[in-house]
Amino acid sequence: MATSAIPNIDPSVKHVGVSKLRDLNASKLKEQTDETLVIQENDTPLAVLLSYKRFQQIREEFNALIGMIELLADEKERKGIIAAFEDIKNGRVRSLAEVEADLEKI
Known about the structure:
Elements: E1 13-17, H1 20-23, H2 26-31, E2 36-41, E3 44-49, H3 52-73, H4 75-89, H5 96-105
Parallel strand pairs: 1-2
Antiparallel strand pairs: 2-3
């Protein structure tokens, strides 16, 4: 897998030593829900601790990305998306209100 040349700078990520784990209990974990902890030993990352809410967000983003990859991998779907962008680019679009009005006539 290729790595990005642009570093991911996230102010919520905090690098801490392994000894920080001893201090964590349920109440302290609740306090740190906004932070992602990179647990490291001798400057070597060992594990990542993040809130369940953040984990769910990452999971949803990952699933959306996989869905988009699957969509773009399908030639028929990909051609349909390209055609839709061409329609938008060339002004061949109608508003939702116009479509709904036409449907009411049926």
